[in-house]
């Protein structure tokens, strides 16, 4: 009986270190090497993560989408566009506001 539980425990270890989790751990390794890439962010940044906003940084905190479907940037950090809460109605980024005369 105790020999059987030892085998199960061993299999449990094998299951916990499956290839999916191992890949995630390996993928997380380079992030620590580029911790300075976030410029002002206190979190690791995936070099493949898309950037947004006027500041060209990754998605973080509260963000708002420009209601111009042709906006080249699309998403903006609240602080970068002077917002503290979501405005009512449509919202256009500074560039689209100027272009569309809104």
What does this structure look like?
Helices cover 36% and strands 10% of the residues. It is an alpha+beta fold and 102 residues long. Strands 1-2 form a two-stranded antiparallel sheet. Strands 3-4 form a two-stranded antiparallel sheet.
Radius of gyration of CA atoms, rounded to a whole number: 22 Å
The averaged pLDDT comes out at: 72
Strand order of the largest sheet: 1-2
Helix/strand order: HHEEEEH
What is the tally of beta strands? 4
Please indicate the percent range of residues in DSSP E strands (runs of 2 or more): 5-15%
The portion of residues assigned to helices is: 25-40%
Largest sheet: 2 strands, antiparallel
The best one-word shape is globular
Query: Which ranges are low-confidence, i.e. pLDDT below 50, for 5 or more consecutive residues?
Result: 2-39
Cα-to-Cα separation, first versus last residue:
76 Å
- The total count of helices amounts to 3
Quaternary structure type: single chain
Which structural class do the helices and strands define?
alpha+beta
How would you sum up this structure in a few lines?
This protein is of the alpha+beta class and 102 residues long. It contains three helices and four strands, in the order H-H-E-E-E-E-H.
